[in-house]
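We were asked to recover a plausible sequence for a given structure. The inputs and outputs are reproduced exactly as logged, with field labels preserved.

PROBLEM: sequence recovery
POSITIONS: 114
GIVEN STRUCTURE:
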């Protein structure tokens, strides 16, 4: 079984933490959909990912994402991630579906900033 966890690690490092939004096509499929459970609305496509990354970095100084734990089952990766916003944090669980070495779909649920 191929280890797809490195795709998620690289995506978080390069796109989310280093704000290299030009690399999104390397990690996200064209038909990408992210389901934000409990927060209403889906993100669709690479442009929504780009806008979401830039929005988080514009709202929060020193915004960072770290991976606490990861588990892979076939082409699904479950991650416990911690979002850092200066002195505040928020935990989120994300399940990514990998298709053809790209993130094709994601489901996430998270709490409030602590």
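RECOVERED SEQUENCE:
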């Amino acid at each position: 079984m191929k280890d797809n966890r490195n795709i998620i690690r690289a995506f978080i490092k390069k796109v989310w933490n280093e704000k290299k939004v030009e690399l999104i096509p390397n990690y996200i499929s064209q038909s990408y959909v992210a389901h934000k459970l409990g927060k209403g609305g889906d993100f669709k496509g690479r442009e929504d990912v780009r806008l979401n990354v830039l929005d988080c970095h514009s709202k929060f100084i020193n915004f960072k994402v770290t991976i606490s734990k990861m588990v892979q089952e076939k082409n699904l990766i479950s991650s416990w991630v911690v979002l850092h916003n200066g002195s505040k944090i928020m935990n989120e669980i994300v399940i990514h579906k990998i298709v053809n070495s790209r993130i094709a779909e994601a489901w996430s649920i998270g709490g409030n900033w602590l």
